[in-house]
């Protein structure tokens, strides 16, 4: 936006300088003897002034539109990132719990004489319950659609 403002200001200053120079040149000419009163006429300077003004307005409009579009895209991307982070955190929590249950299951199965059949069955059930909770957590916390579809 700063670049747009700088170009607009430069165009305005250039147009102003050219206009002032043409007025100064017109004033410095000696009036002709019995010269008729000057009427307003369309000159190249007027045309250039209108063109510079139109370019300045177009540049400002483009800058505002580009700034708005960029702002909307950034807001959409921030919302996507927050949504993705929430889903990832919930999924990670449940996956970590399932991994702890798997570690416990393996420790129970590997211990030869210290674990009973009942303890091994309980460890397997606990692991299966943890996996079921992890899968439910994944269903409850889906990843958001990709930003290419979300932020159009």
Counting DSSP E segments of at least 2 residues, the number of strands comes to 0
Number of domains: 2
- Which geometry do the CA atoms define? rod-shaped
Give me the strand/helix succession.
HHHH
Rg (CA only): 37 Å
Helix content: over 70%
Strand fraction equals under 5%
Q: Ranges with pLDDT <50 over ≥5 residues?
A: none
Number of helices: 4
Distance between the first and last residues' Cα: 22 Å
Task: Please describe what this structure looks like.
Helices cover 80% and strands 0% of the residues. By secondary structure, it is mainly α. The chain has 2 domains: 1-23 and 46-56, no CATH class; 69-152. Helix 1 (2-28) packs antiparallel against helix 2 (44-110) and helix 2 (44-110) packs antiparallel against helix 3 (117-140).
């Amino acid at each position: 936006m700063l670049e747009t403002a700088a170009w607009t200001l430069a165009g305005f200053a250039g147009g102003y300088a050219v206009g002032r120079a043409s007025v100064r040149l017109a004033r410095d000419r000696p009036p002709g003897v019995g010269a008729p009163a000057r009427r307003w006429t369309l000159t190249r300077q007027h045309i250039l002034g209108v063109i510079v003004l139109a370019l300045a307005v177009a540049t400002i409009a483009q800058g505002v539109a580009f700034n708005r579009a960029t702002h909307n895209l950034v807001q959409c991307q921030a919302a996507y990132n927050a949504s993705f982070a929430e889903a990832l955190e919930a999924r990670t929590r449940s996956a970590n719990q399932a991994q702890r249950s798997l570690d416990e299951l393996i420790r129970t199965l590997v211990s030869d004489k210290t674990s009973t059949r009942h303890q091994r069955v309980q460890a397997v059930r606990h692991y299966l319950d943890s996996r079921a909770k992890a899968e439910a957590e994944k269903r409850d916390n889906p990843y958001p659609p990709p930003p290419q579809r979300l932020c159009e």
